[in-house]
Amino acid sequence: MKKYIFSFLFLITLFASANLKAQEVDFNKNNYVVLTKKVPQLQPIILAAEALKAEDGDSFGDFQVVICGKEIGAITDKEIMRKHIKRAQNVGVKLIACGFSLNKFNVDKSKVPTELKIIENGILHNLQLQKQGYKSITL
């Protein structure tokens, strides 16, 4: 019985340490996360990312935009999203959709552009990034 308990604890420790390594953050870089509820705000957010990238130079790190809230269905408009996605990719901005919001507001996940990563809970993701030292703003 002890053998199983120790094996179980070893596996938990192994997976926990692997998970931490996967989430390592380069603290020598400026990392950013923006939580937004409106797709039209993507344009000024991406403009800000472009300016920060130019300003930070080699210190520019990760930049994530989490889209959540009742207007999340707007991300399924391919015409509107196409220009935001292209510009975000050029700057290195990661666009993320909140799965909780998609579910709550009955948005068909198959219509979300494949370039957007869907995460389970956008607010939790934002808070976890803040714990890792990301600079954060909510719009």
TrEMBL record:
Signal sequence interval, chain numbering: 1-18
Domain of life: Bacteria
Keywords annotated in UniProt: Signal
Annotated InterPro entries: DsrEFH-like
Gene3D superfamilies: DsrEFH-like
Name the record gives this protein: Sulfur reduction protein DsrE
Organism per entry: Oceanihabitans sediminis
Lineage: Bacteria, Pseudomonadati, Bacteroidota, Flavobacteriia, Flavobacteriales
